[in-house]
Design brief:
By secondary structure, the protein is an alpha/beta fold. Helices cover 47% and strands 12% of the residues.
């Protein structure tokens, strides 16, 4: 398979749409007993293929499908199905890779009989070419591994990096092997494009611990264009010059890791810890830019304190960027703390009293892509019901913003 491009493919697809396509194909195939389609996602490294497959293969009600992900980098010779000879009978049996065995067991549960489950093979074309590749191809092409055929409702998804890619005139090379044309013809290659809006929607959503997936400061930096007119896409994925000693560069994956660093108060308060951590994740050029932005825009706004005591708002929120950060973070906080009516009313009042043109624009954008609706549905329902004077006024503001 020729994978020397990301932008030269005539048709690309976003990760969000790729997830929808994977699910739609699987459901149709299972329902109508059609031949299985095996999608293989090709992209730049670090854009979030694994994350989207793990968490964004959803049914019609929004419930995640069961997914097992095998990193082919870690698979040794024959370990997808290890042959073991019985010492007495001399017959050979196969010990299945634990995750293959697990997904097969999940698929056979009564409640899953008519529901797809997914086996995702990450770093697909880094598999050992001499030993693992034959087993891998059999799995991809026939849902069979050694002498075992996976249940009908197990669907396979492949993920891989392109062998060579060019972005922002910087060429990235990846040490991968390629499939031949006959194999490729039996798969469905999908070339993934970087979609900043999809990533920002993910960034503002809550994780399993009711925290935003990515620090709101990072999301705001990327969405605001770093305050200098840069595109969100170029900030989200920004390769470093290969001649630099520091090879780190900004990707969705590295921004996600950086999120845990800048949210750590101990690191945040010590520049000698913060600066090396930032450039170690996103590289020198992007790191310098982000640190400057943090000094002028970023802040650890005490959302909980402000919601409890709104008079603190002007002390901690002084710039339009900080207002945006607070207004986007506060509903998530209210939602994750059991939806407190007093906090909800305090938030509505602060929004009404601190309306700005920049905030109007940002709030309109947030409704357009349903971020707030997805991350704080109880808050959304409370506001939409217009159950208080402030809620009514809030909705009037929202209407006026939408009609501009």
């Amino acid at each position: 398979m020729t994978t020397k491009q990301d932008n030269s493919a005539k048709y690309t697809i976003s990760l969000k749409n790729a997830a929808e396509l994977i699910v739609t194909n699987a459901v149709y195939s299972l329902t109508h007993h059609r031949d299985k389609i095996v999608p293989v996602l090709f992209s730049l490294p670090g854009i979030g293929k694994t994350e989207i497959v793990k968490h964004n293969l959803l049914d019609g009600s929004g419930k995640p499908y069961d997914v097992e992900v095998i990193d082919m980098n870690t698979v040794n010779a024959g370990s997808l199905a290890m042959p073991i000879q019985d010492q007495d009978t001399k017959q050979v049996a196969y010990y299945l890779h634990p995750q293959i065995k697990r997904i097969a067991e999940i698929a056979q549960k009564p409640e899953n009989k008519e529901r797809p489950v997914f086996l995702a093979l990450d770093e697909l074309n880094r598999a050992d070419e001499n030993f693992t590749r034959p087993q891998l191809l059999n799995l991809l092409l026939s849902n069979t591994i050694a002498d075992y055929t996976l249940p009908e409702n197990v669907f396979i998804v492949g993920m891989s990096n392109n062998s060579e890619e060019s972005i922002n005139d910087i060429v990235l090379s990846n040490d991968v092997t390629e499939f031949d044309s006959a194999t490729t013809n039996r798969l469905m290659p999908l070339f993934i494009d970087i979609n900043a809006n999809d990533w920002l929607e993910y960034a503002y959503q809550l994780d399993d611990n009711n925290e935003p997936n990515v620090s709101p400061e990072i999301a705001l930096y990327i969405e605001s264009g770093a305050g200098d007119g840069s595109s969100s896409k170029s900030l989200l994925y920004s390769p470093s010059n290969p001649d630099l000693q520091n090879k780190a560069f900004a990707t969705p994956r590295s921004w996600k890791r950086l999120s845990a660093i800048i949210d750590n108060p101990t690191i945040r308060e010590h520049n000698e810890l913060l600066a090396p951590s930032i450039v170690g994740q996103i590289g020198d050029e992007q790191g310098d830019k982000f640190m400057k932005w943090l000094k002028t825009h970023g802040t650890m706004i005490p959302v909980s304190d402000i919601l409890e005591k709104p008079s603190l708002y002007p002390k901690f929120v002084k710039s339009p960027a900080e207002a945006v950060q607070f207004m986007m973070t506060a509903p998530n906080y209210i939602e994750s703390n059991g939806f407190n009516k007093k906090l909800a009313d305090n938030f509505l009042r602060l929004f009404i009293e601190n309306e700005t043109t920049a905030l109007d624009f940002r709030w309109h954008a947030s409704y357009t892509n349903n971020r707030w609706y997805n991350t704080a549905p109880n808050m959304y329902e409370y506001v939409s019901s217009a159950s208080t004077k402030d809620a009514t006024k809030f909705m009037n503001i929202r209407t006026s913003v939408n009609n501009r």
